[in-house]
Amino acid sequence: MNPEDPQSAHHIVSEYARVLEHGDAQVYPAPLRALPFPKQTIKAAILTCVANLRETQLLTGDMREFLEQAYVALADYVDDDLVRVMREYRDALASVSDVQAARDRLQTPAWQRIAETSRLAGEIARSIADDTAALRREFRASA
User: Nearest to residue 42, comparing CAs of 78, 13, 1?
Assistant: First the structure.
């Protein structure tokens, strides 16, 4: 697939859009392997679609907004290890919330997991937020 060819780009973006449609059932961040193509391929395909739609005067405001959101959503797809850390952190938070007494919470393995991973989970979340902002700027500069 050539993401710079308009027909191929349309196919790549369509496949990616299917992943995004089912993303509501997914917990983010999601693993890179959930993407139908590598991030760079999808990014190039989206920009090709924008250029082609603009050239043919078919780029509507809604379509541009959809393509921008799709482009920016790529930040939510990260390495498996980062997904695992975030999942374990969320699971630990959910587990601790089930314990009634604060003193008892501190004794649970879930609390230990939270203490061990909270800084890393925060750094992952901050990195994803930074990537989101960078992708938005990149899209707006290119599209």
Answer: 13
